[in-house]
Amino acid sequence: MVDDFLKRKKDVLGKDDKSSKGDWDEMIIELCDKINELNDYYTTSSCAGRIVVMKDEEKKGPGVFLWVSHDLINFRTLKNVLRKVRYNGFVKFKQEPCILHVACRTLEHAQDLVDLAREVGWKRSGIIASRKNFVVELMSTEKLQLLIMDSGQFLVTDEYLKLLVKKSNKNLERTWKKIQNLQKVI
Question: Rg (Cα) of the chain, in Å, rounded?
Fold first, then answer.
């Protein structure tokens, strides 16, 4: 008898990375590897957190991201990026938390993972279920989002941008700590 879950796992893990980045985030690789070694789980997508400058548009599409970093940033780099922005509309700054999707063999396996994740600080975690498929979405809570430019004009001061850099870096470090904590308990 064919184990449908293991077949799906093999198929998903054997596919090329289709993310816009094209590979896994360094800070989450070990956690994903650890999950993928388990018989009853496999990762379907992940992001260790990021900082982006993007057009303020309803839908994400080609060209909406003006700059993306999956690492800590500094004020000088951000300011240089913003000076080069040529867009006739609103531009926003976003610091997004870690997000991880994990396929689980059963609803019970999914609930076990959610419970474990919540114990180590992943408060925005839940189960997405459809007929026979159970996916856990684990999301950290650290995030920022605000408009910073309008048609090439800054809406915030350099001092405020420095504050955004400081807070965003702190948030990324907190989300990376949660990744490490989850990795320890799995």
Answer: 19
**Sheet holding 41-47: strands in order across?**
41-47, 99-104, 133-139, 124-130
Question: Cα angle vertex 47, ends 172, 21, to 5°?
Answer: 110
Cα 40 from chain centre: 23
Question: pLDDT for 18-60, tens place per residue?
Answer: 555 556 688 999 999 999 999 999 999 999 999 999 999 988 8
Percent of the chain with pLDDT over 70: 94
CA atoms within 13 A on the CB side of 97: 21
Give residue 20's pLDDT.
Answer: 56
Question: What is the three-class DSSP state of 68?
Answer: strand
Nearest residue to 67 (alpha-carbon basis) of 76, 58, 80: 80
Residue 43 sits in a domain whose CATH number is 3.30.1960.10
Neighbours of 99 (CB within 10 A): 18
Residue 174: strand, helix, or coil: helix
Residue 15's pLDDT is 77
| 48 contacts 98 by C-beta, under 8 angstroms | yes
115, containing H or E segment: helix 107-119
Instruction: Taking residues 134-139, report their average pLDDT.
Output: 96
Total structural domains within the chain: 1
Q: Residue 11: how many CB atoms within 10 A of its CB?
A: 10
Range of the domain at 132: 4-185
